[in-house]
Amino acid sequence: MCKRPSIRIQLPAAMDPDGDTLTYTMEGTDAASFVFDASTRQFATKAGVIYDYEAKQRYSLRLKADDGRGGTDAIGFAVNVRDVAEPPSAPAVTAVNPAPGSNTSLGVSWTAPDNTGKPAITGYDLRYRAGSAGDWIDGPQDVSGTSSQLTGLESGMPYQVQVRAVNDEGDGDWSNARSGTTSGSSTTPVATFDSPVSTAGEDAGMHSVSFSLSPPPASDITVMLSRSGTASAGQDYGPLDLDVDVAAGMASVDVPVSITDDTEDEGSETLVLMLTDGTGYTVGTASVHTLTITDNDDPLADTPVVSVSGGPAVTEGGAATFTLTASPVPTGSIAVSVTVSDSGDFADGGTGSRTVTVGTSGTASFSVATVDDDADEPDGRITATVGAGTGYSPHGTAGSASVPVRDNDGGDGGGNGGGGGGTPPPLPVLPEATLVPLAGRVSEDAGTVEAVVLLDPAPASALTLRYALSGTAVQGEDYVLRDAEPGLLRVAAGSGRAAIRVSVVDDGLAEGDETLVIGLLSGSGYEVGDPGSAELVIADNDRPEASFVRGASRVAEHGGAVQVEVAVDPPPSERLLVEYWLHADGTAVHGAGREEGHGHDYRIAGVSGGRGLLEVDAGMPVAVILLEVHDDGHEEGDETVVLSLLSGEGHGVGAEGRHTVTIVDNDGASGAAGRPVLSGWLSRLGGTLAGSVLDALGERVDGMGVSGSGGTVAGVPLPSGPASPAPSRGDESSGFRGVEWRDLSPQWGALVSGTSFGADRTVPGGRSGFWVRGSQDRFGGSAGGAAVSGETVALMAGRDAERVSAAGRMLLGGMLVHSRSRGSLSGQEVDAELVSLVPYGALEPGPHLRVWGLLGAGSGEARVSRAGGVREVSDTGWRMAGAGFRRLLSGTAGGMDLWMRGDVRYSRTSADLSSAAASGSALQSRLGLGGEWAPRVIGAKRGPQGSRGVSSWQPRWSLVLRHDGGDAEPGFGAEAGAGVDWRLAGGLSAGVGIRGLAVRGDGGFRDRGVSASLQYDPLPDTARGFRGSFGLDAGNGTLDDGADPGRLSASPSLSVVPQSRTGWRAEGAWGLYRHGYGLLGSPYLSLSGSGGPEAVRMGYRMSPDSPGSPDLELDFFILREDAGREFASGTAGMVLQMQW
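Above: the chain sequence. Below: its structure as tokens.
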């Protein structure tokens, strides 16, 4: 690929020979690949176009000229693209893992690089090395695919691997280095320092640096060390044995360092120890240890630094002058040694060493005489150099200066050969500006650095030097110029030197070494000599260090996962890979896969061979190692995972290089048995509550489009207010029946059971409603081999609004749910109380379809009572979601309505008891058909008191495919139900229904039942006289027969009671006394139970008995319950119910 093609075009003329202005346009097949500026007549490449030699080598174009008077001409030309070498980019190594069945091989895989616009890749080369240092060894070459194997390696040894791509135009760059360890355990010891850094004061005396050998050597060996650093042997520390003898079986060795406490103020110094290769061992990745020796000496008074500058150039016979400057100013006179030299033969003596005294003024000058001879000779110079002495030190860069000396004996009539011609005036000499080489390499904390410019000869008048800055360092971020005008340097008259001052910024960023290049530019009054540029390397002192945020953490075995935080300081400037390994001190077992069981305790994704890589993004100060804990169900005591960080390319390891995770076992007697049982109980609680919530929503959805009021108290219908349809979109009928109020309770043990109330009123544009509903449900089953059972009582209150828009009839609202559940699990009593908020919505986009959905969340408290009176209390939470639809497939007036329904609901309930923290979920999805005929008239007859009654019957059926999931008896099944209701003209009504799972995937699961009801009310238009009812519900479980929206179940529990159970209820009432305000008094008696009577209720009820009376009911009652309780309970109360 070539960024710019070869273009050779002469600039076209602006006018023709007749003086007409020419207008140019570009034509040709490739005109769209270039741009032509008609105003400037410039032809150029086009931004965004890639000129690829492999794709297209030649572009054909035409340039057309128009004189504006009908005269045109055109010329064709071609643009040729030059070819450049395009080796491929570096691939990315994705995995280095032990080869299956081999302890001496590694499998390597990588991803091919992006090769767009480049010649095809012909193969890949591999190289590797042991550990993370040392020379690379060639591996397989010219590999055709993206995977290969390294063979002949050492067992149990870590290796680094790199891959590069190759094509016909060259070799690409090497990839990132990826680490892997061969299988098996190596018997060759690996030597590593226990820590990468340590610090000791100058007065510490003896300091030990330790390294380890793993495994310990089987025989005596000698480990070789090398040293470097700024500290000097014999001055800053004593003799150091670099050949360390290690006896057989020794796993750790101390290297003693004797630190010298001198009296020099010298700052901190470093001793760097490095493990080197030897016989009988190998060197691991932690092979370098840096000992920092901190100085403890007070700084001495500042010593003057003496520099020298030269005066202006002189002609032979004149005197060259020099000035010495001491900084800081000395407190007394100092004798400075100066050496004078002569390049040429101009000095009139005075060369060699001399002493110049610098007083308290800080400056002193001296001169060197020159000889005015008659020889025609080249120009020369006198040089003065400051030497070492007492009480001062020579300047590092300005310790020498020169004064040019010009010869005056050249030209006609001059010198010895002429007579009478005189001496011509000297030609002016421009100063030559050169840059003194910089220090070469300084640290980011070096402060201010001076780039010294020498001018030879010194300028006779003030001038301004121009310079430019380049390199990888950025001005304002990596360095700051101290000159008043960056790029310009003022030089005073007669000064032979000037300085560009640069302050290096210690930015705290890990960015690598950077360069600053200063180059002198040509200007007026001087010439640029050699060297005209100088380079400064700014060494980065911010190598990131990785360390654990904490040294230890704990997680319960049921906790799921724990995040181990690794801090990188300073944050890396580019993506960083930090290697870590699982230390052998840990007792927990790591598993490579996600499978349950199989003897592992935890898993860390990406760990292979006991090692892993943590990826730290650029600029991120913290990264996380995610440790997933496996809850294995084995009583094994607490276990530990020990993680150790390893230093690598671009980073070191900080003080906290090791982290221990303690996995707290939860599989004692209470934990092992309690958790699965509690999970089963929670799943049934959550599912049951979800069913009650869905039934309430179904009631609201089925009543869309109808206004009015109605309800029941303890299963007794309340008088309904007038109903009126809400505004519609013009649809004839929604295809859904109105609200059907039905008793929700399988028993009459609580007043809230079977109580519901709703009031809706028509408002402009729709309907606004408020409702209250109660439910009581039983559930049961088995979990973890133990029986679980319970019941849930819930009171729900909601507010919603219905609107009609172009999308259809919409219902939006929310409900507040307060529930109380109690039951038993594995011989323990448990109860839970929840307060939940559930927003919901429904849409009727057409006359035969309604869809709906809801979300719910709640929190509360769970309590478990154990043997011995121990009671545990914890927070509990509940979440649910549900969605569904009901579509009318066909329906005719007086015929059967055929509908399809589908729904899915999910709930999750959790509790965090210390002995058995758990959570349980329930999931159920259903899809089915159902039918319901309109009431079929049997006949009519005259009733008591002249009333006329109509006899009718109404059949119904349903067939539903169902799947139960979560923690409560998961499986597939087919659910079927059928029933018929009769209403006789004489006041007697009855109903029979059967339901059950017709097919179930697991044969041990049963869900079936039968229900029957009987009611007698000879005077339906009044409450006077006798009324009676009887209901029977028999089966081994309860079936949510009406959980689709708009169909309330007589037994809406979601779960199954495994034991057979028959429930019954009976009530008799007699309306016999007329009170004021149109109220009729009715004493009543009701019995309910399974087997014998379990609840007896008797009372006196007053309710309206004539049109126009207030919608009011007052009930005084006494209730006795003894079912399933150790002691019978009695309740007396009064209920007042008003309706609007």
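The chain is about 5% helix and 50% strand.
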